[in-house]
Amino acid sequence: MDDRELRVSIDHESKIRDQIAALTGKLKDVLDRPETGPSLPMLKEIEEEEGTKKKPPKKKKSLKDGPKRTISLQLPPEIFEKIQQDELRDDMEANASLDEFMASQGLDAYTNLLKRRGFNTVNDLANLQEGDIDFKIKPVHRSRLLWVAGTQKGFMEEDGKEVPKTEKVKPTTPDPEDKPKPKPVRKTAAGAARRPGPGQRKPAPGKKPPPGAKRPAPSKPQPRPRPGAKPAPTKKPTSKATAPPPAAAEPPKPTPKPSKAEAPVEPDAPPPAPVEPQVAEPVEELVDLPPEVEGEDEYLPEPQHAEVEDPGLHGDILEEDNPHMHKMADDYEDDYPIIENGVPGVDLPPQPENITRLVFGSGPFGITVYGTGNGLVVTHVEPEGSGAELRVEVGDHVVELNGVEVPPSISDREFVEQLMSKSRPVVLGFTRNGKDFATANAELAGGVTAPPEFEEPEIPEPYTVGGISMDEIDPDKNLADLFPSAGLEMYLDALKEMGAEKMEDLAYLRRSDLMDLDIDIAPADKKKLLELGLVAFLTKEGLADCVAYIRSVGVDMVDDLVYLKQSDVALMDLKQEYKDRLMDVLGRDS
After folding, report:
1. Which end of the chain is more exposed for a tag (fewer CB within 10 A), N or C?
2. Are strands 404-405 and 397-401 parallel, antiparallel or unpaired?
3. Main-chain dihedrals φ then ψ at residue 501, nearest 5 degrees
4. What was the pLDDT predicted at 118?
């Protein structure tokens, strides 16, 4: 290669190096410079286009997914709390008004009561405190309402919102729901809806009075004969058919009673005048006797027994004879001795005149109480418990605990907690119709006053749940056979897609499942479905006989069981085996 060719080659190589250096500098400038080119909007547009694409449909949940997806009892507390909070937030967003929200929660019975106290919006619930709930409410509903209030306040603080100020109002008049409901007028001696006295014939087992039949009044109760006492003459009219019938139709004339020295009138001799007041005349005034009544047995009218509205909860109390109707005033002397001392471990003040004190030793108390807000009332007495042995009756008020006054405003839960904290024996003070037992019984037996009235708690009928009779509910029964009678047939297909075809499948039904259905559910129907889920769950757990008791304290669905407290279970008039089983299901010690 000559010099000329070598020089050309060097120049070419130098140019190449310059080009490489220039390109390297440009590349370095590009790398050091922030990205501000037109490519960013293009990327944003691509992201927006991807965001507009529809998400794949959510997979249908099956009610049978997971071994234990039922309720909080089978979930860790923190997980269930998070689930409940998410469901509550969704519910609040879907139901803006207080009426809609309370209905979705199954608490619509308390909406107007809250509004009367100044809580008019969902946000106002964040200011709700336990002292604001001064109206009648079931225990579980109270716990749920307070949880909703606390959670709502937490939501607002978490979202950085200010909790609104609520102008709370204390009602000066009774709530409409607390006004006494009209009850059948108790008739006096002229009409008499009182229990039959001794000697009157009871109706045959299973026999019910025809609809609309007039209720006959029993005659005045007779005193029970004391052991060894001479039997008193009966007041039944003579059963001989030869008795002159016109005497019964004539008005009674005042005649002096024969002295003890006078000999009794011979049966064969026609009586010149009534020996003693006859009860045939007043009975004829009160009861229309059948025309064929002639003999002694037909003289006694068959009493018409009042039907018990809720036998599953309160027992068939009215089907038992009222023991007060079998005693006269003098039979109650010393029946209830004064208890002021002599009870181990209990220091008692002097016993008030209008209170009867009873000592409860070991064993079950056997009574169910209910806090009405104006007194603690006995709503049921277990036949084999201590309460029955001490002759406590439905309608009695508990006014003392170990000599200390029980406030009328105390709730049944608070009373049970106080009672359980005491060691045995304990002394409970009772009143009956505002008086001590002996006075009240004597007045009742003497016809001075009517049996005590008391306001029973509003408890759902135990035989109808979710619009379906409990007699018809069977775990193996198809929902297609049950739902039409309750007006729920429109939800059969949606539930079938979730794996619920039989009654037992509803044991895993939760509120969130109903929210996931591709169908709008009316609040009333939602409540029915959740109630049926509760029945299915309790049946699966062997607690079908406890449905009425559990619903009576405000448990409307399976998840509500988490709010049950030990004192709530103690208030239920259940056998101990059921209480133990229920506490086991709740995951707590009995």
Report:
1. N
2. antiparallel
3. -120, -25
4. 92
Residue type for position 286: L
If you search the block for the tokens 């590349």, which residue do you land on? 27
Strand partners, 476: none
Write out the H or E segment, with its range, that includes residue 120.
none
Given a contact cutoff of 8 angstroms between Cβ atoms, the answer to whether 281 and 189 are in contact is: no
Choose which CATH entry (3.30.70, 1.10.10, 3.90.550, 1.10.150) describes domain 95-178. 1.10.150
Q: The tokens of 327 are what? A: 């005693």
Give 428's pLDDT tier (boundaries 50, 70, 90): very high
- Any alpha helices (H) in 435-553, and if so which ranges? 437-445, 479-486, 492-497, 511-516, 523-540, 547-552
List the structure tokens of 382: 């277990």
What are the helix (H) ranges across 212-310? 246-249, 280-286, 296-299
User: b/e per residue, 42-73, with b = 16+ CB within 10 A?
Assistant: eeeeeeeeeeeeeeeeeeebebeeeeeebbbb
pLDDT digits (tens, 9 = 90+) for 276-309: 444 444 433 433 444 444 444 444 444 444 333 3
- Asked if the model's pLDDT at residue 207 lies above 70, the reply is no
Distance CA(171)–CA(167), nearest Å, equals: 13
CA 135 – CA 115 distance, rounded (Å): 12
The verdict on whether omega for the bond into residue 282 sits within 30 degrees of 0, i.e. cis, is no
Number of residues assigned to the chain: 590
Query: Has residue 183 got a pLDDT over 60?
Result: no
Q: Give the closest residue to 498 by CA, choosing from 61, 59, 58, 57.
A: 61
Query: What b/e sequence results for 282-292 when a residue is b if at least 16 CB atoms lie within 10 Å of its CB, and e otherwise?
Result: bbeebbeeeee
pTM equals 0.47
Q: Which long-range contacts (CB under 8 A, 24 or more apart) does 388-396 make?
A: 390/358, 390/360, 391/323, 391/437, 392/358, 392/367, 392/430, 393/432, 394/314, 394/317, 394/454, 395/432, 395/433, 395/451, 395/452, 395/453, 395/454, 396/430, 396/431, 396/432, 396/452
Question: What is the biggest distance separating any 2 CA atoms in the chain, rounded to whole angstroms?
Answer: 179
Output the pLDDT for position 34. Answer: 54
Whether the predicted pLDDT of 542 surpasses 50: yes
Backbone φ and ψ for 377, nearest 5 degrees, come out as -110, 140
What class, spelled out in words, does domain 314-445 have in CATH?
A: mainly beta
At residue 399, φ and ψ (nearest 5 deg) are: -120, -10
Helix 77-94 vs helix 139-158: angle between axes, to the nearest 10 degrees?
Answer: 80
Angle of CA points 442, 359, 320, to nearest 5°: 50
